[in-house]
Amino acid sequence: MDTQKRTLSGMRPTGPLHLGHYFGVLKNWVDLQEDCRAYFFVADWHALTTDFADTAVLRHNIGEMVRDWVGAGLDPEKCALFRQSAVKEHGELTLLLSMITPVSWLTRNPTYKEQQQQIVNKDLGNAGFLCYPVLMAADILMYKPFGVPVGEDQLPHLELTREIARRFNSFYGEVFPEPQALLTPAAKCPGLDGRKMSKSYGNGIFLSDAMTDIESKVRGMFTDQARMRRSDPGNPDVCNLFPYHVLLTDAATQADIRQGCVTASLGCVDCKKIFLDRLRVFLEPLQERRASLERRYGSVEDILEAGNEKASAFAGGTMDEVRGKMGL
User: Fold this and answer.
1) Where are any strands of DSSP class E within the chain?
2) Which residues of 310-328 are buried (b: 16+ CB within 10 A; e: fewer)?
3) Sheet of 37-42: strands edge to edge?
4) Are 151 and 277 part of one and the same domain?
């Protein structure tokens, strides 16, 4: 009997991963693989809910994302890294759960309403986008996890997953435990221009970036926009750069930077140099792991195939149980 705690999470392969992805998601995943039976999946079906019209870069994005995962510290020998679309049980469970999910539960989803309003350059009127919370519930419930690492913005989705689990269990008998939220500590990673770091804004520092490219980006990075001259005192609490010192710089150096900023004894150029030094130390081992992926584990496809087998083995058992309970 499998008694080890399980956890699961996934990520859409929509482009290269940046520092926000690392500190907001991947750092937590790396910790979880040490204590749990962890499943982390490439959410390629989820990517199609919004990017169905152009899939030309999907395979490329999948490969680059898995490289970033391994670079960040995920170890395919400790956790299962798999492709959602390769484990067909996810599709079957989505279909079965959709039979018992009221449409009203989907239309009240706050993310559905927000994205319909905010994403105006894509057609989001498709059934797949409306029903993606059911697919998400299937992804999660398949592995009967005790908890799911999420940010606060994902809590409504997880609550809907629990509601679907309760409804299934009430109809057919206990199959699915209700997964709890493993809240990911918020990590402030503003983009180079002060907006949210995003590939679409062109304001990110990516995990695969060469340091020469990063140096150019950081030179043009916004800091405290009220600090117009070198002699002006600054305010680290509104500075676009200081949150990265909180993440990458030791507490004593942070205190020195804060003091130097508010007294104008430390200029923004010098502050950026300290950041670049810390970032170089952080990225070097990450990029070394990324570059040595083939030598350590074989190809990206080898990693995913091994993960697909692990995920399919567990998913098969879950679906045998589901079919039995439903009389199929």
Assistant:
1) 6-11, 37-42, 80-83, 147-150, 180-183
2) bbbebbeebbeebeeeeee
3) 80-83, 37-42, 6-11, 147-150, 180-183
4) no
User: What is the distance, to the nearest Å, from the Cα of residue 139 to the centroid of all Cα atoms in its chain?
Assistant: 15
Average pLDDT over residues 40-59: 92
Long-range contacts of 262-269 (CB under 8 A, 24+ apart): 262/233, 262/234, 262/235, 262/236, 263/233, 264/230, 264/231, 264/232, 264/233, 264/234, 267/230, 268/223, 268/224, 268/227, 268/230, 268/234, 268/241
318 lies in some domain: yes
Confidence of residue 1 (pLDDT cuts 50, 70, 90): very low
Domain CATH for 268? 1.10.240.10
On the question of pLDDT at 251 being above 80, the answer is: yes
Average of per-residue pLDDT across 124-138: 88
Phi then psi for residue 94, to 5 deg, are -60, -45
Cβ neighbours for 149, distance < 8 A, ≥ 6 positions apart: 7, 9, 25, 28, 29, 32, 182, 184
Q: Cα–Cα distances in Å, from 111 out to 43, 199, 235, 276, 305?
A: 17, 20, 34, 36, 32
Number of independent structural domains in the chain? 2
Tens-digit pLDDT profile for residues 90-114: 999 999 999 999 999 998 877 665 6
Q: How confident is the model at residue 181 (pLDDT cuts 50, 70, 90)?
A: very high
Q: C-alpha 284: how far from its chain's center?
A: 21
What one-character DSSP code corresponds to residue 292? T
Does residue 290 register a pLDDT over 70? yes
Q: What is the CATH number for 56? A: 3.40.50.620
Whether residue 293 lies inside any domain: the answer is no
Helices (H), ranges, 225-299: 242-248, 251-262, 268-291, 293-297
Q: Which domain holds residue 126?
A: 6-189+298-326
Bridge partners of 181, per DSSP, are 148
